[in-house]
């Protein structure tokens, strides 16, 4: 017989692509959440990255879903906004990257299958820059992480989830590969002189003058 999918009381998920500056906000936020708190049984914390359809299990088997993400809602850079239940439609309709297109499909599929979570909340940060390839979070997005964690704590408290602060100096296993952790990733990041941020430098050459031009 096929294995029965695991049921989750609550899933806390960060999504985004850390290769494009503020587009990685959700991933950095969920990692900060993971390092700040222990969660009780029945609560799953995951780095969703750009995993797309691999996230279907978590969406379809969660009673309640909390998502951290970068979202263009035309606010100030670093502004944090809460979308909940029916109001998440603007988040799904306002794509800032390909990962949201995949999530839109996942939510629609879950709804058609009758497996949509009872409650979905998205805590979104207005990006400042999502075009810096290999870039870090901008200062505005970085400063928004404590704000989004406070909002997450309030939301989970309303859902009856009690978070336990981690002890000072406690070692925490990373949610993803250790080389992708923010400090490691940014310390090993090449400078703009060492690596072109926008294209392959072999193709960044001046255009030849048009025929007949002076």
Textual characterization of the structure:
- There is one protein chain.
- With 214 residues, the chain is of the alpha/beta class.
- The chain has a single domain (8-203), classed as 3-Layer(aba) Sandwich (Rossmann fold).
- Helices cover 29% and strands 19% of the residues.
- The protein is built from 6 helices and 7 strands.
- The chain has helices at residues 25-36, 56-60, 89-93, 98-112, 139-158, 182-187, and strands at residues 8-15, 37-38, 43-49, 62-70, 80-84, 119-125, 164-165.
- Strands 3-1-4-6-5 form a 5-stranded mixed sheet. A two-stranded antiparallel ribbon has the order 2-7.
- Helix 1 (25-36) crosses helix 5.
- The longest helix has 20 residues, at 139-158.
- It is globular and about 50 Å long.
- The termini are far apart.
- 33% of the residues are buried.
- Keywords: Aspartyl protease, Hydrolase, Metal-binding, Nickel, Protease.
- It comes from Mesosutterella porci.
